[in-house]
Structure formats: structure tokens, C-alpha cells
Specification:
about 220 residues; alpha/beta; Rossmann fold; 7-stranded parallel β-sheet; 9 helices
Length: about 220
């Protein structure tokens, strides 16, 4: 393990729940505050999500160097590579720590087997789990390791809740019960609604309000 350990955020959730789009909203807010992030995206075979983030965040917006958006093809269900055997991801993380010690945090994205996805504590220091309203307002009370154990639960696509018959008040109530009052944030990762609150949790609970390294070292 590198002695220059960079804080790591694991972002998990079912396919289509909005993980990639969430990262595309988080990074600009962090960047505006002076924080620099690296990104690792896990997928079974393709590196489509990494390519998309590299295009949107690096090529178009210049917020992240292209080499700091890394796609990992796991060859199997991605949750295995972040939970049971995170060695591939740890290797990429340690390379980032060695080459880019100016980073303030690393965002690690992984889909997986629905509500059972979690991150190994050896890989992620802070775990965000994202679901969306299309699963219905019963989703939080279906429980699952991801929903119950994550540090921060996000409920996405709140704009379409009325069209799929999802009651946000029920989802909020059940999330409080299932998660023993651990925080839940409602977001729209397409428009960025609520993402500033997500970033505030990351800065407070993971970075402990520490100033960005670039500000400290200048």
C-alpha cells in the first residue's frame, strides 16, 4: 500500500441508475472548490463509461487530465472487483497515488448485482450508493447491502417520480427506517439538482473539510 494514501469514494448502483452522470456533475463542483479528482470506472468488458467521462470531463471541459480517467474491464460482474477481490482496482489506485500525489480524492465507479453491491473497505473509504425512482417507491424498503450499509444513499431521477408512481415522501420515510437515519439525498444527476449537497458530504465526511492540496502547497 502506498504511503501517500489518497482518499477514495466508491460509487455503486444498478446499471442505468445514474452513476456516470453523477460523477460528471460532482467533478465540476469539486474542481470549482479547488479539489482535484482521479476517476476509475469498472465495467464487465467495455470501457464505455470511462470513454464518455474522458470525453466530457477531460477533452471538452478540461477538468481532469485524460490519463486520470481510467477504465477497468473486469471480465465478470464488476461488484466482484470492488468487493471480493479488489486487487485490480487497488493496483490502479496505487499507481495513481505514485504518479499523481497532488490528487485530493479518487472516485471509483462500479455497477453490479443490484442492491447487494458494496465496496471492500480496503478499496473505498466512503461509499455512495445510487438508486432511482423507476424501481418504485418500494425500493428503499427492499433493503440490500448497498442501501443499508452505504455512507450516503442517493435517490436519483426525482423529476420523473410522478410519471412512474413513486412517492418521494414514502421513499424518504423508508430510507430513514432501513438505514437507521444515515443520510439520504434526492438528486437529479442529469440537471445537477442536489449534487452540491452530495459534494458537501464528501468534503465533510471524507476530506474532513481539509483544504485542496494545491492551495495548501502554494
Amino acid at each position: 500500500m502506498s504511503s501517500n494514501r489518497i482518499p477514495r469514494v466508491g460509487i455503486g448502483g444498478p446499471v442505468g441508475s445514474g452513476k456516470t452522470m453523477l460523477i460528471e456533475q460532482i467533478v465540476p463542483i469539486l474542481s470549482a472548490k479547488g479539489y482535484k479528482a482521479g476517476i476509475i470506472s469498472n465495467d464487465v468488458v467495455s470501457k464505455e463509461d470511462a470513454d464518455r467521462m474522458r470525453q466530457n470531463l477531460a477533452t471538452e471541459k478540461g477538468l481532469v487530465p485524460e490519463e486520470l480517467v481510467i477504465g477497468v474491464a473486469t471480465g465478470g460482474c464488476p461488484h466482484t472487483a470492488v468487493r471480493e477481490d479488489p486487487s485490480i482496482n487497488l493496483s490502479v489506485v496505487e499507481e495513481m497515488e505514485s504518479k499523481y500525489n497532488y490528487l485530493d480524492l479518487i472516485l471509483i465507479e462500479s455497477g453490479g448485482d443490484n442492491i447487494t453491491t458494496t465496496f471492500s473497505p480496503a478499496l473505498a473509504d466512503y461509499f455512495i450508493y445510487i438508486i432511482d425512482v423507476t424501481g418504485g417507491d418500494k425500493y428503499p424498503r427492499k433493503r440490500g447491502l448497498g442501501i443499508e450499509n452505504c455512507d450516503l444513499l442517493l435517490i436519483n431521477k426525482i423529476d420523473i417520480a410522478p410519471y412512474v408512481g413513486a412517492d418521494l415522501k414514502i421513499m424518504e420515510r423508508d430510507a430513514k427506517i432501513v438505514r437507521n437515519k444515515k443520510p439520504t439525498v434526492f438528486v437529479n444527476s442529469k440537471t445537477g439538482q442536489g449534487v452540491d449537497i452530495v459534494v458537501s458530504y464528501i468534503i465533510r465526511d471524507l476530506l474532513f473539510e481539509a483544504s485542496p492540496k494545491t492551495l495548501v502547497n502554494n
